[in-house]
Design goal:
Strand content: over 45%
Helix content: 10-25%
Number of helices: 2
Order of helices and strands: EEEEEHEEEEEH
Largest sheet: 6 strands, antiparallel
Strand order of the largest sheet: 2-1-8-9-10-5
Structural class: mainly beta
């Protein structure tokens, strides 16, 4: 699987899949639809990923007393995302950073992919 965020290819752990949940819509409840989404994706903190994600999500670290390496970021930022499997587009939408952690000196970034929703009712007016 290849994941692109803001057209930048993210390094992924090959052993960790990220399944997508697709929604089937009921025509009677068009106003209650939700988009497709992924399970939480653990993105490894490679040097490339750290540099890129820190700029996209405006991340910063601090050494607060009792909270070494506390990472702060803007949770409202949503970046464009595309996922491909063997060169075939499987998902297009946005990526949102949920949290990050550092264990044994290695960062992990937990993200969720959400599909962009189209308001069909507004388009039909």
């Amino acid at each position: 699987m290849e994941l692109f965020i803001n057209d930048f290819e993210i390094d992924l752990n090959q052993s960790i899949p990220f399944p997508l949940t697709y929604q089937i819509y009921d025509i009677r409840n068009m106003d209650q639809r939700r988009g497709n989404r992924s399970k939480t994706i653990a993105v490894p903190g490679t040097r490339r990923n750290c540099e890129f994600l820190s700029t996209v999500f405006m991340m910063s670290t601090s050494d607060a007393i009792g909270y070494p390496d506390l990472t702060q970021f803007d949770p409202s930022i949503k970046a464009t995302a595309r996922a491909y499997e063997k060169g075939i587009l499987q998902f297009e939408g946005i990526a949102q950073l949920i949290d990050s952690s550092k264990k044994d000196g290695i960062w992990t970034f937990n993200m969720v992919l959400l599909s962009e929703q189209i308001d069909i009712m507004s388009l039909l007016k």
